[in-house]
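Box 3.1 A note on notation
Throughout this textbook, protein chains are presented in two layers. The first layer is the amino acid sequence; the second is a token string describing backbone geometry. Keep the layers aligned when reading.
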Amino acid sequence: MADKSSVLMRKKEKKEKEAAEKTKDVKEVKNGGQTAAAEAAPTDGAAANGQNGNSQVEPMELPPFEIIAGDRIDPFAFKFQFKNVEYSSGRNKTFLCYLVDKGNTADGLLRGCLEDEHTGFHAEEAFFTQCLSDYDPTLKYTITWYVSSSPCCTCAGKIAELLKARKNIKMTIFAARLFEWEEEEIRVGLKALHTAGCKLRVMKPLDFSYTWDTFVENDEQPLNLWDDCKENYEYYHDKLADILQ
């Protein structure tokens, strides 16, 4: 009972901090004159004023789910989506930056980015269907991901099974944040990835700078890390160590 009470208390605190974090990010991050958190705000027609001043909220219709592929990430999107805050309100998509080394082939080092939106086909799954569609069992692959958050339990399970079946793939995942790490099914999924041979890491300040330099349309400007970047890294690093022990 004590463990359940602790989880419920953390979830309550999480909601309170998410609200505070959303307000902070709206003030800090702007995307082309609009806040990067605007995606979490109601669109025109999403809310209409009723009679007597009462607010009536109409259901929002989300656009079709899609995977966006490219070479570089918008700098404002990176600063918002990859920010390693503990409570990630408004960050409802995954950004996945990848490097693929196929060994001694003429392809060289493959590099790119994927972005997903809403629910359904996640960026982690899309990587294997879109970026590794020409998989060759005779080659030795070294795959490195830099993701805005760690995989959900479903994606983690699928990746783990794939790594068990394809022994010629060596994989490392660097995550800015741990997605819903308090949930038992998430913890089980991360453990399964670890057992399957995937190296799981939390992005440290140097990794954020590397990702900025390698995958972001930065106009040759350096990344100014947020004040609590190192502190938040240490927080997630400790949580991941506890999960994988």
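The first helix runs from residue 2 to 28. The mean pLDDT is 79.
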